[in-house]
Design a protein that fits this description.
The chain is an alpha/beta fold and about 230 residues long. Strands 1-2-4-5-6-7-8-9 form an 8-stranded mixed beta barrel, surrounded by 4 helices. The radius of gyration is 16 Å and the shape is globular. The N and C termini lie far apart (about 35 Å).
Length: about 230
């Protein structure tokens, strides 16, 4: 896919046995942005969150972060946990709600998403939505307002519904162990992209991370963590 702005989205699964991502190699491989999982529910924060943001920024990548939404009564608390995890971070690609509610009742799931986005917007304006095409169609059919969109659709050859970011599959990327989700930035509207912000100091060390046990549920890329 030459001539497009490519990126990756990562979580602790891209750090097997405590291995760090070499973001300099990622940049050399032609990738210019990254999105990283920050939190899930109210009880999980990615232990690599700040290390990945700082190192990716230092390598010249644009950065963003997402929260994996759990459909439960604690939606506002989830937004607070997400926001708190990102204090001090400048995110050119903003913040995102990873919406994969599985077998949840559609109306309940949709209300959870809109509540999370609205609460997050109070502190981090412009919260976007990550979902697949089936959920996008369900939201539109229910006349639920859809914020800026990060669409997961691995079955098409081109972005096609006005999404800002399109997750189109997985690939091997230099500097990242194993396969990783890959994305295209299809629109830069509302973004200040000429340069990355001044790099923050990177973490000198990080504790060896034990991968969390997989919980019931499925992200398009299988990224579900406690």
């Amino acid at each position: 896919m030459s001539g497009v702005v490519k990126g990756v989205d990562v979580s602790s699964w891209q750090h097997p046995y405590g291995a760090a991502i070499d973001w300099e190699e990622v940049a050399k491989d032609g990738y210019t942005f990254m999105l990283v999982k920050a939190t899930q529910g109210t009880g999980y924060q990615n232990p690599w969150l700040h290390r990945d943001i700082d190192d990716a920024r230092a390598a010249g990548l644009l950065v963003g972060a997402y929260h994996f939404l759990e459909v439960n009564p604690e939606i506002s608390q989830q937004a607070d946990v997400f926001i708190s995890s990102l204090v001090g971070q400048v995110l050119e690609l903003g913040v995102w709600c990873d919406f994969e509610p599985g077998a949840s009742q559609p109306a309940v799931a949709q209300q959870a998403m809109t509540t999370f986005v609205a609460h997050t917007n109070e502190t981090r304006p412009g919260c976007g939505l990550y979902c697949d095409l089936a959920w996008l169609d369900a939201l539109k059919a229910a006349y639920v307002p859809v914020p800026r969109l990060w669409l997961a659709d691995w079955a098409v050859g081109m972005a096609h519904v006005g999404e800002m970011i399109w997750q189109f599959g997985q690939a091997e990327v230099k500097g990242i162990p194993g396969q990783v989700d890959v994305d295209v930035l299809t629109s830069t509207r509302g973004l200040n992209l000429p340069t990355a912000p001044t790099p923050k100091p990177t973490a000198a060390t990080v504790s060896t991370v034990k991968l969390p046990a997989e919980e019931e549920g499925l992200r398009v890329d299988g990224d579900v963590e406690p």
